[in-house]
Amino acid sequence: MTKFKLDEIDHQILDMLIDNTRTPFTDIAKKLLISAGTVHVRVKKMEEGGIIKGSSLTLDYQKLGYSFIAYVGVFLQNTSQTQFVLERLKEIPFVTVAHITTGKFNIFCKIRAQDTSHAKEVIFKIDDIDGVYRTETMISLEESINDKKRLMHSIFNDLV
């Protein structure tokens, strides 16, 4: 697989879009002293190359009443049940992320809940899935790092 070639302008465009995916191309163009058409063409090229995949919206879960975060390691009775268990996890809306992993757990999940009582209900739902042998839960006290830019900057510096 060949690496996609990005230059400094592409990097700056990505930098601004990471901050706010809804930034108008005209605003980006003004800041970078290029035309909005150039921004459009470059973003389109990055989309077609698979560098940019859609855009996302960031919700403030705390304001929505879902500030409790826990990570749940899932042990399976048999690894052949992985896809079945993942399908059942998708049916629990409070499971927001799930990874198939190596090491201690077969699957590692992030859950969001209203409080400890609600989290317990979610964890019990996970425990009740056929094929789940047991779970191990860690409560997040605080999200200290959630920075998409640092990795992008490091990747860009490796490409240059």
Weakly predicted, low-confidence segments: none
CATH fold name of the largest domain? Alpha-Beta Plaits
Q: Rg from C-alpha positions?
A: 20 Å
Q: What's the domain count?
A: 2
Write up what this structure looks like:
This protein folds into two domains: 49 residues, Winged helix-like DNA-binding domain superfamily/Winged helix DNA-binding domain (Arc Repressor Mutant, subunit A, Orthogonal Bundle), CATH 1.10.10.10; 72 residues, 2-Layer Sandwich (Alpha-Beta Plaits), CATH 3.30.70. The protein has a four-stranded antiparallel beta sheet. The chain is elongated. Helix 1 packs antiparallel against helix 6 and helix 2 crosses helix 3. The mean pLDDT is 92. The chain starts with 7 loop residues before the first helix and ends with a helix. The chain has 160 residues and is of the alpha+beta class. The longest helix is centred in the first third of the chain and has 13 residues.
Brief summary of the model shown:
It is built from 6 helices and 4 strands, in the order αααβαββαβα.
List keywords for this structure.
single chain, 160 residues, alpha+beta, Arc Repressor Mutant, subunit A, Alpha-Beta Plaits, 4-stranded antiparallel β-sheet, 19% strand
